[in-house]
Automatic annotation (TrEMBL):
Transmembrane found in the keyword field: yes
Stretches assigned to the Aminoglycoside phosphotransferase domain: 29-73
Keywords for this protein: Membrane, Transmembrane, Transmembrane helix
Source organism superkingdom: Eukaryota
Name of the protein in its database record: Aminoglycoside phosphotransferase domain-containing protein
Segments crossing the lipid bilayer: 6-26
Length: 127
């Protein structure tokens, strides 16, 4: 089962990257497709989904995107759309493992999208 999930993620990522048809993107994609452990994660960790009570995390809500993701996903995904929140980044950096190489590779890919952080539909239709 683990091997299937890992291969499925890798195949999806490669298909996405190859759809751009750009060797520049392929170079960055290789950095993301390195073998990584899969882990259960929230997949949308951001301030609006963290409830704090008396200075401590009381709950993490909105698990609709949760699932099995590569170990770097929590770190890279937490950077989507949080441009003006230096306090968020500071807390994030001290709370979870950093994956700077993967983050840099994803940034290069996000820049190719019309709106970084928003899913891109190649066919113009929602599937």
């Amino acid at each position: 089962m683990w091997a299937f999930l890992l291969l499925t993620h890798s195949a999806i990522m490669q298909s996405f990257i190859l759809s751009f048809g750009d060797i520049y993107l392929l170079r960055h994609a290789r950095r993301l497709s390195a073998k990584r452990s899969l882990t259960v994660t929230h997949a949308d960790l951001c301030p609006r989904n963290i409830i704090v009570k008396n200075g401590k995390v009381a709950a993490i809500i909105d698990w609709q995107s949760g699932g099995w993701y590569p170990e770097y996903w929590v770190y890279t995904k937490a950077h989507y759309g949080m441009v003006n929140r230096p306090d968020w980044y500071e807390a994030l950096e001290s709370a979870i493992a950093r994956y700077d190489d993967e983050y840099e590779a994803e940034q290069a890919l996000w820049e190719q999208c019309d709106q970084p952080g928003i899913p891109l539909h190649f066919s113009g239709q929602d599937n």
